[in-house]
Amino acid sequence: MSKKMMLLVASVVVVVLGAAATALAASPSASNELAKSNSDKNNKDFAGLVDIGGGRQMYMECRGKGYPTVVFVSGKKDRTETWSTTLDSSGNPVFPSEQAVLPAIAQTNRVCAYDRPGTIVSTGDGPQDFETSRSDPVDQPTTLQDAVSDLHALLQASGERGPYVLVGHSMGGAISRLYASEYPEDVSGLVLIDYAAYGARKYLTEEQWDLLQSLIGSPSQAELDLYPDLEWFDEQLNLEQALAAKKLKQMPLIVLSADEPMDLLPYVENGTFPTPEEAKEFSELLFRADVAARSDLVSQVPGARHITDTESGHYIHWEQPQLVIDSVREVVEAARKKSCALGVKNHGQCVKALKQAQ
After folding, report:
1. How far apart are CA 169 and CA 316, in angstroms?
2. What is the pTM (predicted TM-score) of this model?
């Protein structure tokens, strides 16, 4: 991988599989047609642009049938293709993969995924070997709140019926969690995959938080030269928005955490860490803080479960797709029965449980 391409696709969460990501095959060219009628999209496969208002269009793919609709929310910089990708025995990405999470869930449910502005998919080894977001660009950096507002506008404009089960990876998990707080009636379940847990801030010193922001903050000039509209986030505003979010309502929730700390050795090469030992120490510190913050969230939602023995790095849906598929199906089944939590069989039991909790 060229150094420029590594800079483009790398962030603290993507660097774990950065070398593999460049092999990801290009997706089929997207339709440039605007969305058809809402009733058509509710029953047919769809891939194209949706007018979300304000002179903007966003790319969306939906397929399959079955209630509830599952909406996939990608991690930072990742286009829709991430949900149809797995790894082969050599650790190389395979796209499209029938063993991937999205096509598996599409066998039984309506599924949708979309491109946030500024996301990419790698198509080769060179600095220009990538495809950009099919959604209209926006001013960068953005925030969790911006992403939540966009997702809400997209779902409303698309006509896809809710309430939805949201499945979010990394930054997409943080977006999904905030969405569920702001639009609780639109969400019947959550699956959060190694999500960006801003609650980890309470386990970090000011100096450690500043260092983390430097790792995941603004892109380099080399990245922006390649793609001026590349997605990035204002991490301080993200933190404030995430910590101010309302408590989640009672709902089926599964959180999956990587059980391998992130590889920060590339940040030794660029001088962020003086030694490999210091990079490893900070990586392990972040790992513990993230797991603790996710456990905190799970403890606030009755019946929720935190899966930590994933035998995976950050991209659990690539490395262990069946584990993610099983988790999504469990939450989907609970949501279909209108259960308020995992392990609660029906709506009547939910009403009883909620009364007891009051």
Report:
1. 9
2. 0.88
